Fold this protein.
Amino acid sequence: GAGVSQSPSNKVTEKGKDVELRCDPISGHTALYWYRQSLGQGLEFLIYFQGNSAPDKSGLPSDRFSAERTGGSVSTLTIQRTQQEDSAVYLCASSLRKATLQETQYFGPGTRLLVL
Amino acid sequence: AQTVTQSQPEMSVQEAETVTLSCTYDTSENNYYLFWYKQPPSRQMILVIRQEAYKQQNATENRFSVNFQKAAKSFSLKISDSQLGDTAMYFCAFMKLLNYGGSQGNLIFGKGTKLSVKP
């Protein structure tokens, strides 16, 4: 009965480098979400995948951010040419989404990204 | 656009006492869900309680209950018999429901209230 897992737990990188963050949703969950939590801020929505539909990318802050979800399961969030303002905790969540009573999102432990 | 406001950045309560965390939201939607999530220092976001807007009855989960006032767009969380393990950041969140019953997808969060339970 594994929950949502994310890797790495922490990531330190240099400005200008690319980083990849991984999310493994709960098995059977059709919806997957990425959020960003900056210091002292609430959670900011980034991108949302639902089944085989085109993802909702409306929250991505710039074209340096992209995400994919392979085989309807694992997702990777990629940040290219990282900037110091990208430093934050990146949280992934998944939900069952087969009925309106199953909208609850379950979160992973997050990846703390520090850009030096 | 929807917004969620938590007006109390920090609160503290003595162990075994009751505390209420405030949340207000702004929306023109009629159908939506509201959530309270807890985030302890481990960073793991944990669902505390959820409320469907079409339900008039306030949701309860053991020591946690909400006071949902739809007309006032208020959704406060009451924690009874506070325990040391309740120390955490608490986030209020909103999710819009589309007309056919599906959600908009993403949650809209407030900035959180840091709750400290003191022995």
Remarks:
- Chain A has a mean pLDDT of 90.
- The two ends of chain A are 37 Å apart (CA to CA).
